[in-house]
Amino acid sequence: PRKPWPPPQVHQVALSVDVSFDPTDGSVGSGMILRDMTGTVIFASYRKLFHLNEALEAELQAMMEGLKLAIEHS
């Protein structure tokens, strides 16, 4: 069974990030969503990144992009 989305505490936000990495050319598609404690979307974004070496690097880059946007919007 699916687990429910765990909301953040009062006066906090939750950032979710996911990536898709293609090792043949190092391209990445990443998506981010920032929500408040009620689940209301504050922003949703996607990025295409290029020339990354591995999936871990892709995840870290997407998290950094998401954190920058989260700081701007919260």
| Shape category | elongated
Number of domains: 1
The count of helical stretches stands at 1
Low-confidence stretches: none
> What fraction of the residues are assigned to beta strands by DSSP?
35-45%
Order of helices and strands: EEEH
| Main structural class | alpha+beta
Alpha carbon gyration radius = 14 Å
Protein name: RNase H type-1 domain-containing protein
GO molecular function: nucleic acid binding; RNA-DNA hybrid ribonuclease activity
Organism: Triticum urartu (Red wild einkorn)
InterPro entries: RNase_H-like, RNaseH-like_sf, RNaseH_domain, RNaseH_sf
Structural commentary:
The chain has one domain (14-73). The protein has one helix at 55-73; strands at 14-22, 27-35, 41-49. It is an alpha+beta fold and 74 residues long. Helix content is 26%, strand content 36%. Strands 1-2-3 form a three-stranded antiparallel β-sheet, with helices on one face. Strand 1 (14-22) and strand 2 form a beta hairpin.
List the SSEs and their pairings.
Blueprint lengths: L13 E9 L4 E9 L5 E9 L5 H19 L1
Antiparallel strand pairs: 1-2, 2-3
Question: Which structural traits does this protein have?
Answer:
74 residues, alpha+beta, three-stranded antiparallel β-sheet, 1 helix, RNaseH_domain, RNase_H-like, RNaseH-like_sf
Concise account of the structure shown:
The chain has 74 residues and is an alpha+beta fold. The chain has one helix at 55-73; strands spanning 14-22, 27-35, 41-49. It has one domain (14-73).
